[in-house]
Amino acid sequence: MIAELGNYALALSLAVSVFLAILPLWGAERGNVQFMALARPMTYGLFLSLSVAFGALFYAFAVNDFSVQYVVNNSNSNLPLQYRLSAVWGAHEGSLLLWIWMLTLWGAAVASFSKRLPQEAVARVLGIMGLISIGFLLFVLFTSNPFTRTFPDFPVDGRELNPLLQDVGLIFHPPLLYMGYVGFSVAFAFSIASLMTGKLDTAWARWSRPWTMAAWIFLTLGIVLGSWWAYYELGWGGWWFWDPVENASLMPWLAGTALLHSLAVTEKRGAFKAWTVLLAILAFSLCLLGTFLVRSGILVSVHAFASDPTRGLYILAYLVVVIGGSLTLYAFKGNRIRSRDNSERYSRESMLLLNNILLMTALSVVLLGTLLPLVHKQLGLGTISIGAPFFDQMFLIICTPFALLLGIGPLVKWRRDQFSAIRTPVVVSVILMALLGFGLPLLLQHKLTVSAVLGVMMAVIIVLLSLYELHQRATHRCGFWTGLTKLSRSHWGMIAAHLGVAMTIWGVAFSQNYSVERDVRMKVGDSVQIEDYRFEFKGVTEANGPNYAGGKAQVDIFVGDKQEAALFAEKRFYTVSKMTMTEAAIDWGFTRDLYVALGESLGDGSWALRLYYKPFVRWIWFGGLFMALGGLLCMSDRRYRFSKIVKEKTNE
Amino acid sequence: MNPRRKSRLKVVLFILLGVSVAAGLMMYALRSNIDLFYTPSEVVNGKQNDASQKPEVGQRIRVGGMVVAGTVKRDAESLKVRFDVNDIGPSITVEYEGILPDLFREGQGIVAQGTLIEPTVLQASEVLAKHDENYVPPELGEQMEKVHKPMGVSSADLKGESERDQQQKENQ
């Protein structure tokens, strides 16, 4: 009954979204106030009816309703409740429902936080978001309905959620990532709306900037969490595999980062307008492309669990409609966008342009590396794979000028500046960078590699120049400490995000170059020395859980004679899905992680063990968190509070 | 040419230069990092049974196949392991040192990446098995179907329930 209610709510949502897509847009075109006024209530209605559908699916999982096919495939009565609930987005159908529910959530958020926007703009934006949801609702209803029943012969118990996904990571990772993906639809809707009217002013940039920022924050957190999850759950100790699905989330992130920076130019200087619109379209298209790549199953990936070619074809068609449609609109209306561009060659604008160029280069590298195997195969040239070294090399090359630019950029004034103004600090920083670039790796790890030195140099230059910029800005009018308190939140945000980049680069440089990874064969009482740490194997004991049987290995870690940690690495055999899973044990530290994973038993009482020492690996994720924090600070800046904008407007 | 055009030309040339350098670097990096996929029979007989299409000794390749039952041999002292993979046809030997993935089992489909050290011996740097008990790597599945159709082996035999699986189940 509840499942039918959910199904009904889905159908109702489709109807509402069709009206939402037609009426307000038509009203905005004709200047019909009544139709425009329908946009808000219909958006709330859509959100409400999809919440009912979403809730129905939760309910089906909570009460173990095995007459619903999706529940059968992804749940089991032995599964703990929190995993049963997060299993809602554990596979294709449910994650699409989550996706579309979030789309309407963003729509509802736009509707309620944009009270001060002109009614026409709101009507258009919400109408376009309705248009997007039609496509996804059709998709959910006709190709991947989560409420399909198993009648008449429904099974007694379900097949269980993939054990890999039975983790706290699953509870948060997909929702965050999807919030990010879907959030770019708001920036997209704002852009399309402005293309329709041909009005692209700084006010437009000011409205869409916090929304883009919000989406970007979610995407950043989603990626960070996914990377951390892969690190501790997959048991390989890696944090990024250049897997096509990871790339699919990185591409919109790169486009989104470029969009944020180009929006800054549009807001402050009224330039780059057409480019910003194009970037907004690109970012959202890449989000859709990501869905296509993940869900169509054309990719060979650890993430490609369930897949179905007809679904892939549908998403491909949808992709063509969205990208083709918006680009056509852009082709016809784009020339109406005029930028007042009167900046000189050496100015903040040019720096941000370079930033965009480098981000786009990185994006095309990822795109090429992800799609080339696909194209190669479709052309009948055989199956190939592109290894991680390709991406690593390319990103090293791209990041080096990017880091330097990131340091210098904020020091350059808008419109016109002279390099001589910052020559001394830049020269001093470069000298310090060269010294520290060789000094710090030597001091901390006692050996040098090219990429480690480069990475440390990048991190150092970003930190030095960011701090110098902070000092300059704070002492602009008053003393340093009073100046600090007067800085705007968005300025702090920028500094936090840029320092986050430095932290991530630092973490990558150290963990990629100085990690020690040893696969060893150990008997009880054996010990292995890695750097300063002695790993002693104490034996394996039984450790069973509600839906698995398992063993737990104890490994004590000593520095000299002092015990540093006791780690318990597990191996689990999930009885329903008959899958073996490794649960790694990690002793985390500020400057290093110690990682133990249990391999198989080798007979004669010895076990295969995987022992890792990973310096500064946490910094990769700390950096990501800092970036997100920076975004949050920017978003909460005074100038984006809409009441304030309106007050300013009425004063003008 | 007026100065405005001249400066624009400079910018355009600069961008073109940048793009071509980037493209060149990308091609260079790609060339050394593309790994071709082979099945064991392709390693032995060459692609499309063309002996000139065999991978050379020293080449980095990916091989996908099924672990042949009874061929997994472990070293008593270290984590070295040797096993054969095939795709119904000739098999090749894979050497690997390290921990095998959780789902590595005899009869399971795997993908090994590494260097060919002898015409039929692969020194693997990585062995992948998918997180699904009936998993056949799609790339392998396709290749196998191509090879097997003429031999009268159905794809159902390769995935999930083969006749042997059913017999085993009945025996249990």
TrEMBL record, chain B:
Extracellular side stretches: 30-172
One GO MF term attached to the UniProt entry: metal ion binding
Membrane side Cytoplasmic: residue ranges: 1-8
GO cellular component: plasma membrane
Start and end residues of each stretch annotated as Disordered: 139-172
Xref: InterPro entries: CcmE, CcmE-like_sf, NA-bd_OB-fold
Top-rank taxon: Bacteria
Residues engaged in binding heme: 131, 135
TM ranges: 12-30
Topology in the lipid bilayer: Single-pass type II membrane protein
Pfam families hit by this protein: CcmE
Localisation: Cell inner membrane; Cell membrane
Stretches with biased composition (Basic and acidic residues): 158-172
One GO-annotated biological process of the protein: protein-heme linkage
Family matches, as SUPFAM superfamilies: Heme chaperone CcmE
UniProt keyword terms in alphabetical order: Cell inner membrane, Cell membrane, Cytochrome c-type biogenesis, Heme, Iron, Membrane, Metal-binding, Signal-anchor, Transmembrane, Transmembrane helix
Function, as annotated: Heme chaperone required for the biogenesis of c-type cytochromes. Transiently binds heme delivered by CcmC and transfers the heme to apo-cytochromes in a process facilitated by CcmF and CcmH.
Similarity comment: Belongs to the CcmE/CycJ family.
The protein's name in its UniProt record: Cytochrome c-type biogenesis protein CcmE
Species: Exercitatus varius
